[in-house]
What we know:
Layout: E1 17-23, H1 34-50, E2 53-61, E3 64-71, H2 78-96, E4 107-111, H3 117-130, E5 143-144, H4 150-160
Antiparallel strand pairs: 1-3, 1-4, 2-3, 2-5
Amino acid sequence: xxxxxxxxxxxxxxxxxxxxxxxxxxxxxxxxxxxxxxxxxxxxxxxxxxxxxxxxxxxxxxxxxxxxxxxxxxxxxxxxxxxxxxxxxxxxxxxxxxxxxxxxxxxxxxxxxxxxxxxxxxxxxxxxxxxxxxxxxxxxxxxxxxxxxxxxxxxxxxxxxxxx
Length: 164
């Protein structure tokens, strides 16, 4: 698969919000082990803090990761954040198995002021439900937020459309 290109004339630095998807190489189902998922989740949160981002919503699916993230410093660089996260988790993967973890590049969407973060969080949190992995997002261990308690986000989502 070709590497997605960044938009010309767009700065990926600063106080912006992004919806990011990154896929494993050859869509390998790498995020199925509790131990590895937890290591990657902790690395996502640590890298997010180091790079000046908030991980508003995230979900580790078996072969990809979704992330709603916002820069919280003027020097917060999305390319640097994603590169560091993928490098660190790729190294952790390489210690466990042979080969690379990630496809080159990632897909991102810069959220504009009129786009609701909640609708992106809904998409992210409903991903395991749509994939048939669980019936309710509460049943899926590999989604969360470093900004809001998961129950607050799910309650807000339920107010828009019940899961049950």
